[in-house]
Amino acid sequence: MPSASYADPRLAALYDALNPAGAAAAFYLGLAGPAPARILDMGCGTGLLACEFAARGHHVTGADPAAAMLAVARARPGGDRVRWIEAGAASLATRARFDLIIMTGHVFQLLLEDGDVRAALRALGRHLAPGGRIAFETRNPAVREWQDWNPRDTRQRVEAAGLVADVHYDISAVAGELVTYETWFRFTEAGGAPAAADDAPDGTVVVPETLRFMDQPAVAAFLAEAGLTQVTWYGDWDGAPYTPASPEIIAIAAGDRPGTGAE
Ligand SMILES: C[S@@+](CC[C@H](N)C(=O)[O-])C[C@H]1O[C@@H](n2cnc3c(N)ncnc32)[C@H](O)[C@@H]1O
Q: Which pTM value belongs to this model?
């Protein structure tokens, strides 16, 4: 069940304006090797990266549990060159096998329970072709990036698909590894956003989301448990190696028997 931030078509329409492609996209595009590789973008969202891989001649599948996000992805230029599947990481079940599976935009942090993480990594491992790799990132908890997610520092106006909204983030709870924050969308009249039944009268929509901040040893342990023991670690999108002070924990993992994906 996708969270509200990805289930509401208005919020899906604003996603790219709020999350423009950055250095992470270039990093992942650089992992594919020569075309055509078989690539799965798990948690593909609005499909920006999936379509970029397809434009480079790769055979691409984009999977996401949120129908509203996939609707944006399908309508994107080049969206007809990608196979789209409505599924989350744990529920993926296709006969296809992939040379590269990516999970970008901190999708890994939406796996809140140990069981979710185990099920997701096992399912993705089963979908690797011999020699295939899984690449994803999670924010380093030591950096406490969530401390910057406050109204003063994050306020911005976003416009897309005829919608205009003033947006900011705010932290509502920090409990161990779990950080809950709210995204506030205030749709302006000028945007002509149709009010939904649960919108506040002033056009405000508040979307809570919880993320798990797991440290690198914990990520490594979950990967090993899934049979993904050959791991290269990076700490930032410029390819710097992971250190305990890195902003990101980026894992590129393969199965422990060379030439095979994890079972
Ligand atoms: C922050 S967006 C990232 C989208 C895209 N990968 C990007 O980099 O822009 C998170 C996406 O993960 C999806 N998602 C949520 N739970 C998921 C799960 N269990 N498995 C895979 N994707 C999931 C959401 O529907 C949403 O589209």
A: 0.94
